[in-house]
Amino acid sequence: MNTQLLSPIPQPDLPLTLLGGLTPRQFLQDYWQKKPLYIPAAVPGFADLASFEQLVKFAGRDDVISRLVTHEGDDWCLEHGPIAKKRFTQLPATNWAMLIQNLNHLIPEANQLLQQFNFIPYARLDDLMISWAPEGGGVGPHFDSYDVFLLQGSGEKRWQIGSECDRSLIPDIPLRILSNFTHEHEWVLKPGDMLYLPPHCAHFGTQLSPGTTYSIGFRTPSHQELASQFLMYMAERMSIDGMYADPDLPVQQAPGEVGQDMVEKCQKILKQVQWNDALVGQFLTSYLSEPKQHVWFEEPAKLLSYDAFIKKLTKQTLVLDEKSICLFHGGGASLNGEEIPEEIACLPAIQTLANRRGLDAGEYDELLTDWLYEIYQAGWVYFG
Ligand code: SIN
Ligand code: CO
Questions:
Q1: What is the pLDDT of residues 84-135, one digit of tens each?
Q2: How far is the C-alpha of 26 from the C-alpha of 20, rounded, in Å?
Q3: Which of 96, 130, 139 to mutate to test the pocket of ligand 1 (most atoms within 8 A of CB)?
Q4: Helix (H, G, I), strand (E, B) or coil at 111
Q5: CA atoms within 13 A on the CB side of 365
Q6: Is 192 in the pocket of ligand 1 (CB under 6 A)?
Q7: Domains within the chain, CATH numbers bracketed
Q8: Which residues are within 5 Å of ligand 2 (an ion), measured at CB?
Q9: How do strand 66-72 and strand 75-80 relate by DSSP bridges?
Q10: In this structure, which of 110, 184, 261, 282 has its CB flanked by the most CB atoms within 10 Å?
């Protein structure tokens, strides 16, 4: 088995250097969504995964989400990518930061780093963002609505963590910067040091020497988003028989009024819209595995024939593309927002594909192999 190509299996009770010697279970119980954790040498010997020049190239691409934050005192400016290479030659020596989202889609090593955090389920894991900043650079004092691990790449960064603070923001600027930030804790992170912050914890990072921060971010859909997306999902799937009927219609003296009788009849009809755990689970696999808007997949440069594909499958690991997301619940599963046909979704190989982000070389049944060939053609998986 080529274990390197497959994502690690989370071990709930194994102490992790990444968590400062805590086990995932202890971390989740005591810190996750509760309080910050400073972890010196979380990734010993950690070296940058991308050079400044590579990041500038990424910032220039229109399929990459990038931002540039500059500031002079309290005057904060935000530019959205794509950012031309020339723009970086016009910047001052200090006080700016370049941010590149989804580095895990761009560099396999960044995806491997993100996979180290899979003690948090993929349905919650979002992306790996990198920031590069010279001395004085940062994005200002702010809070995020999601959990984040901030791993220092190169250089040193001072992180100040706010107390339960005044949430007011500097008005009329394109960034959400806290106007009255005061801090309770301060740490200077060196390469490989990490800080975990729960949602809504005010923080202010300032790069002390040129370098990078890797932000492992999580997804926290709002209740409103979940409910509206679920209703849209339901709308496509439900089927309710019958036509409105009112053989008992009374004469209304106010014909403009929607009568109480009609409201009650419709209430009864609408109560037929029902759901259960299985449906909510299936909705979540589909919705949470949808690719982000800027993501697209490319078919393999040299497409194998079906026969050559089957042959290779017996010899080589098939891995999910870095941009692919596969989730399952019960007997259902989705890949990149598309529900996997029931007779395939229930196969144990689908759970491996979702958990380990790949499949060992082997002979698989015909139905599964046909489907694997389809997703291989779509560029959703490739041979590792
Ligand atoms: C940074 O990398 O400086 C910003 C990360 C964050 O504050 O979430
Ligand atoms: Co933040």
A1: 999 999 999 999 999 999 999 999 999 999 999 999 999 999 999 999 999 9
A2: 11
A3: 139
A4: helix
A5: 9
A6: no
A7: 3-218 (2.60.120.650), 222-237+259-384 (3.40.366.30)
A8: 144
A9: antiparallel
A10: 282
